[in-house]
Amino acid sequence: MSSSEPDSTIDSPEPLVVLSHLVHRLLKREGGTVPVERVTLRVCDYVDIGEQEAADLLDAGAADGTFTLDRGSGGSTTIVGVSPQGPEPPVITEAFGGPAGASAGDDFEILDVVTESIATALRNAGYTTFTELVDAEVADLANLTGTLTESRAEAILQAAPRHVPVGVWLARVADARYSRRLDETGQHGVAQVLDITTANEAVGEPRYRTDGLSPDAVDAQYVSDIGRNAQDPVPTGLHILDNPDHPDVPKAATHPDAGDDALPVDEAGDVVPPAAPTEPRLQLPLDELLAKKLARGLVPVRVVGPRGSGKNYLVKYLCHRTNRGYVSVDCDEATHTEDLFGPLTPTEDGLIAPRNGPAKQALLNGSVLVLNEFPVMRAGAAMSLHRLLNEGKLLVKAHGELVEPHPSARIVITMNPPTREYRDSEPMNSATRGRFRALEQPYIQDVEEEVVTLDAQVNTSHEVVDRGTLRKIVQFAHQSRQNESWPTLSTRNLTILCEHIEDGASPKAAVKNEVWAVAEPNQYPEDTYETLNDYL
């Protein structure tokens, strides 16, 4: 139909229905706005109308609230919202795949290895949904028909979790989390208030002592076998302790005493190792370097790196692998000495006695004390640690005590680099700075290494994002880290945007949302969109 012919389509529901659902799908995929021109050019693929007629439909729909248009000052118009009219037409469903936001239900034939006869056999065996199918075992499915072999059954069970609605997974995880917080009867959820003074149990003894090993035995120490050292493991001298159940030792997510901050595990149940980037100047893997520094005793270590680069996770992982306590304190400008070492409090008999703070108790227990954003806390609190950093002894003036820490105690501080992005961070004075062994933890430099790390974190129980899409997301993140005027996407940000994808967002929409979320006031997420189009 030409633009000169009578316009009868505005009142016709079918073109408007198709157009509204096309816009809905494009907005969902693009993550926000869609240029009018892109819609008017594409709509003819799904319904027999021309560009001008589509533009007229958009204008009429904008007037009645079907579409929300944003007319820019430069003359360009974008669509920023839509109210889809009626059910989604099959032509749109076929083009974009599966109803928007809906599950594939019990259509098992969408799996490559499932034929019509296999699908029928599965339904006859009582499997009507992917949720039911995912709980099956290979032995339950194999030989239901002559063509359903064990290898096909394995393939079905491997692919089925991708089609289970995310709400199912969230409900199961929530149940497991709730079950860890039940009362003694196992009937009611309860809160927990943990007093740090009750965690006064010393960490375990070095394994070489209790197992009768040589101090330099490989089995008695942390061996760096991740990242660059995966093919040539390096013993580090950091002794493994013999009590993995100590309350301060970081636990795997599968451990019965694991908390909400438990370390994630892979399909085999092993804790996901951190990415171990190479220290830029020392040119050694960071886990190896940090472990060797910790093996030297109570020597203070400073780890400098951008947000989300994995500074704390690396320390937690080393503590997990060596059964060492991990006590983390987040410092800020209001952190006082008593926040670290504890206040003086009245006792029941009216006397005044010291109460141990987290830093002091960690040193008494023999844990690894991690002080995050150390430079931002008050100068007095930092100065109170100088004797500890110099001589390995903690002077707590208010308590009248000189504390010689447990021989397994260690101290690590973390901080952001002194760059424009972290301009609110306070610089560390030279007297304090010189007391630390400093290591830099940059973002992961190799795309494929970060893809592997991210895949292990987000695709544990079921595939959330396929490897190809993960690679494109990581490639874009690396671009963001190289452009100082762009918002920076860290590895932590990538795990969050993968969570958005699991919730049903398109990959491009998830990336746009996270770029917007981390943008500084002087940064504009829209500056990244053209480059993002090259990847997604």
What features would you highlight for this structure?
single chain; 536 residues; alpha/beta; five-stranded parallel sheet; three-stranded antiparallel sheet; 11% strand; disordered N terminus
Characterise this structure:
With 536 residues, the chain is α/β, with parallel strands linked by helices. Helices cover 37% and strands 11% of the residues. It is built from 22 helices and 14 strands. The chain has a five-stranded parallel β-sheet with strand order 7-10-13-6-14. Strand 11 and strand 12 form a beta hairpin. Helix 18 crosses helix 19, helix 18 packs across helix 20 and helix 20 crosses helix 21. It is globular, with a radius of gyration of 29 Å. The N terminus is likely disordered.
